TrEMBL record:
Pfam families: PilM_2. It comes from Candidatus Nomurabacteria bacterium GW2011_GWB1_44_12. SUPFAM superfamilies: Actin-like ATPase domain. It comes from the Bacteria. This is Type IV pilus assembly protein PilM.
Length: 358
């Protein structure tokens, strides 16, 4: 797989050869993971999370620059982070497939730039992009291209400026999640569902390449709101009940359970719709796309009691919680400090850290 290095600054100074901490930034929190080389393989070093005040970032867009910079400064002070690979919000990215004439790999970037404005609503000078080769024959090459606005990266660079934390790479979330939970070298076809607090990221990975992404405005916070409203309790108490009881339990009445299931049904319908779209449309070479073999769940609320089984009902594809450590260590002789349930929240951060550890 030939991959561009556009998000990685060039030319690479010495510090780019050093391991970087994966830093996942969402609307509600930052999570980071450091991977370190040990005698028995890669192990987890520093890790943690830090809340982001409401309204600082909304749908991936920075609304309050100084407040975000202050969060970075606090993380620097507490955890002494230095070099980081940073996630970019999925809903601010564009992903498309492009079929190019057969050419040298070194010429692919220039060829993409020439047609970029035909694919996304911005000029080539306003865009930053990365790409993967997903197929080729004697006459053509197909690539999967991820694009973000240069201004988006500039905003995060500005927020990090003066904090003592240096970004060495930026990457769209779906690529990081895929690197974390799809076994390295597995060229099968899978769907990842990252069930976050405010939204859910859906991606299809085939042949080791992210080929489809979508964002659904449904998350664990929606379930919390249902509990808080119906039981007339605080948001914190509703969060506690949600994690203790799941989508059914002693305190979860039938009415609340049905309301939460209704929310999850929206997500399930979106998953089914994207699965059908993938299967019904041929690739650039007119070939039927391979069937999705499995759906992997990750995200902070993906481990709620009853969530996986209810989401899986009505779907023909097996659904299971992801092993976010699958590409870190075999776990035969290593027990990570992060529990399995907590690790589901760190899928993006682990994937970001793995890009510099492999």
């Amino acid at each position: 797989m030939k991959r561009s290095k556009f998000y990685q600054f060039s030319p690479p100074p010495l510090f780019l050869q050093m391991p970087a901490v994966g830093l996942d930034i969402s609307d509600a929190a930052m999570r980071f993971v450091e991977l370190v080389e040990k005698r028995k393989g890669i192990e987890i070093g520093r890790f943690g999370d830090h809340a982001i005040p409401r309204g600082v970032i909304e749908s991936g867009e920075v609304k309050k620059m100084e407040e975000l910079r202050q969060v970075f400064k606090e993380i620097k002070k507490i955890h002494n982070l230095e070099f980081v690979s940073v996630s970019l919000p999925e809903e601010k990215a564009y992903l498309f497939e492009l079929k190019l004439p057969k050419m040298k790999y070194n010429d692919i970037r220039g060829a993409i730039e020439l047609v970029l404005e035909e694919q996304v609503p911005m000029s080539a000078s306003e865009a930053l992009f990365d790409y993967d080769i997903i197929g080729e024959d004697e006459s053509s090459i197909s690539v999967s291209v991820s694009v973000v606005a240069r201004s988006l990266v500039d905003v995060y660079l500005e927020a990090l400026s003066g904090t003592g934390i240096t970004p060495v790479a930026f990457e769209v979330e779906s690529h990081s999640v895929a690197r974390s939970i799809i076994p390295e070298g597995d060229k099968g076809t899978f769907m990842t569902v990252d069930f976050g607090r405010t939204r859910t990221g859906i991606a299809i990975i085939s042949g080791g390449v992210v080929q489809f992404t979508s964002t659904v405005q449904v998350g664990g916070g929606t379930l919390t709101d249902v509990i808080a409203k119906n039981l007339k309790v605080s948001h914190d108490e509703a969060e506690k009940i949600k994690h203790e009881q799941g989508i059914s339990g002693e305190k979860v009445t039938e009415e609340i359970s049905l309301a939460m299931m209704s929310t999850i049904s929206i997500l399930r319908d979106e998953i089914s719709r994207h699965q059908n779209y993938w299967q019904e449309h041929t690739d650039d070479y007119g070939k039927k796309r391979p069937a999705i073999q499995k759906i992997y769940l990750c995200g902070g609320d993906s481990n709620l009691a009853g969530f996986t089984s209810y989401l899986a009902s009505g779907l023909a594809v097996p659904v299971e919680l992801a092993n976010t450590m699958v590409n870190v260590n075999t776990l035969d002789e290593y027990i990570p400090e992060i529990s399995f349930n907590d690790s589901l929240r760190y899928a993006t951060a682990l994937g970001l850290s793995l890009r510099r550890s492999k």
